[in-house]
Amino acid sequence: MSTFQAPKGTYDLTPPRSATFLAVREVISAPLRDSGYGYIETPGFENVELFARGVGESTDIVTKEMYTLTTKGGDQLALRPEGTASVLRAALEANLHKAGNLPVKLWYSGSYYRYERPQAGRYRHFSQVGAEAIGTEDPALDAELIILADQAYRSLGLRRFRILLNSLGDKECRPVYREALQTFLRDLDLDEETRRRIEINPLRVLDDKRADVQKQLTDAPKLRDYLCDACKAYHEEVRALLTAAGVAFEDDEKLVRGLDYYTRTTFEFVHDGLGSQSAVGGGGRYDGLSEMIGGPELPSVGWALGVDRTVLALEAESVELDLPATTSVYAVPLGEEARRVLFGVVTELRRAGIAADFAFGGRGLKGAMKSANRSGARYTLVAGERDLAEGVVQLKDMESGEQSAVPLAEAAAELAKRLG
Ligand code: HAM
Question: Model-level pTM greater than 0.90?
Answer without folding.
Answer: yes
